[in-house]
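User: Can you help me understand a structure? I only have the sequence.
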Amino acid sequence: MIETVVSAPAVAAVAVHAAERVPGVRVQPGVAGLAGSLVRTARQQVKGLRPARAEGVRVRWSGGDAVLEVDVVVSGLDQAAAVAAAVQRSVRSVVPELTGVEVESVLVTVVDVAW
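Assistant: Let's start by predicting it. Here is the structure, written out as tokens:
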């Protein structure tokens, strides 16, 4: 039997893709994710890797399921709560489809509104 392991950065990159499919959304790290993002990027550059963008998404595991935190900037033309709900739906459907990883929850934080 072959076991496939999907890393947290891979899940985060897919979550960025899923979130940014929602019109008026840009994933951007908030204060909590900025330091970790800088460390991860520096480590990958030292190794000569050019990874997919995963900044603005934090992944932790609950059993075998992913718990995702997504920081977004939304358009000032849309209702922030409705956009955040659309991001949750997109991430919850796309991450399992592309990675096989089940999603326990998606917490969306609106870090800014772009006018």
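Now, to help you interpret it: The CA atoms of residues 28 and 48 lie 24 Å apart. The chain has three helices and four strands. Let me know which part you'd like to focus on.
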